[in-house]
Amino acid sequence: MEFDDTSFIGLVNAEKYKSFVDENWELDNLFQHFSNEMQKGNILVFQMTEEGIEHSWNVKVRIGKEVAVDQYFRKAVGYIRVTANQLYLADYSCLTMAAQFKDERVPDENCSNYKINIEEGNYKVNVIQFYNADKDEHIGDDETDILLNFIKISDFQATAGDVFWYSY
């Protein structure tokens, strides 16, 4: 994923995600919106760096069974619904432009390049971050920065809480 502003990355069901918040949104409003949409299964949002470092993320996608990983920087588990057989990775710029302007959409032109083709259904997503951008170090897999491991489940479970790894 080539960087624009990748300090935050979203995994988005573009068909269901309601992106617009307000033309004058504030950060608290935006993050509450993300949380509400996460509970509906339309998006998962992750803070990738505390320092706001821009980085081109090497993202690996696995679909199927759970993968055992022993060493990593951090890990999160979330749940998402897939419709239209696709999800997108969206950077912070894409998410915030769509939150501010009704005529902007997720994905934007840049993020439309980061489509994940995946069968419709409910998924548990293990998100494993190997690369710590703030310290410029890999823990575990040094070929991959982020692993998205999708496991299809029969019943959707709401993702509780806020943006993953949010530290402000």
Roughly what fraction of the amino acids lie in strands?
25-35%
Uncertain segments of ≥5 residues (pLDDT<50)?
none
Indicate the overall shape. Answer: globular
Element order: H for helix, E for strand: EHEEEEHEEEEE
Helical content band: 10-25%
Q: How far do the termini sit from each other? A: 24 Å
Number of helices: 2
Radius of gyration from the alpha-carbon trace, in angstroms: 15 Å
Mean pLDDT reading: 91
Give a count of the beta strands, DSSP E runs of length 2 or more.
10
Protein structure class: alpha+beta
* Sheet of most strands: 4 strands, antiparallel
Major beta sheet, strand line-up:
2-1-5-6
